[in-house]
Amino acid sequence: MRLFAIGDLHLSGHPPKKPMEIFGTRWKNHWQRIQEDWKKRVGEEDTVLIAGDTSWAMRLREAQEDLNEIRALPGKKIIIRGNHDYWWESAGKLNRLDAANRMHYLYGTTVYTADRQFAVCGTHGWICPGDNHYREETDAKPYRRELLRVERTLQEAVALHCRCTILLLHYPPVYDLTKPSGFTDLLEKYHVPLCIFGHLHGLQPHTVFPRIYNHTLLHLVSADYRECKLLEIKLDEKGVPYESDC
């Protein structure tokens, strides 16, 4: 079994109701390019992590066309909620609806791969204090709530005794690309070797991330940053994750 990751698919039906190429040439035919890479590299026994902002749909019924496109692709999918996933009703409901489709939705919960190589802790994350968009009056409460969710999932992961724990977020665990937060404190406290996230756009591909932050490998998997190619996550002989595009 192999593990892959991608984020920020930003689907909007077929043909797309909101073509993403209005945000730059790296988005041109982005979903077609992602699917081509996915089908070439992912097998049915593999797992793909999707780091939020999956569909522009406002309601679950409107998101079904986009979700069907993902269901049709090979492998098991583990999905978290992004800040634009307004269609997301609850992880419990989504998991009941998709139980037979090998689609699993995480929101403050933890799952593990069948071979117990990876424990995946997933939640939304939040804007961190210090960020230009952070407002104490509106962001302090959800920020603290997300920290509690992350810590609970990491505690669950410890009990699973998998070779590697991955924290899957939508928002980055750092602000201003390099500055610490409560999320980086938890990554250090629980010795998490890998954090995967999306949300950030407009960066030159492969320039800022991956980077090591307090012994945690940080990977940005937004579709435009990844040039519409999935990241394959591998472990060395000691169980330490490393970057791979092979």
From TrEMBL:
Boundaries of every Calcineurin-like phosphoesterase domain copy: 1-202
Coiled coil: none
Top-level division of the source organism's lineage: Bacteria
InterPro entries reported for this sequence: Calcineurin-like_PHP, Metallo-depent_PP-like, Metallophosphoesterase_sf, Pesterase_CT488
Protein name: Ser/Thr phosphatase family protein
Source species of the chain: Megasphaera lornae
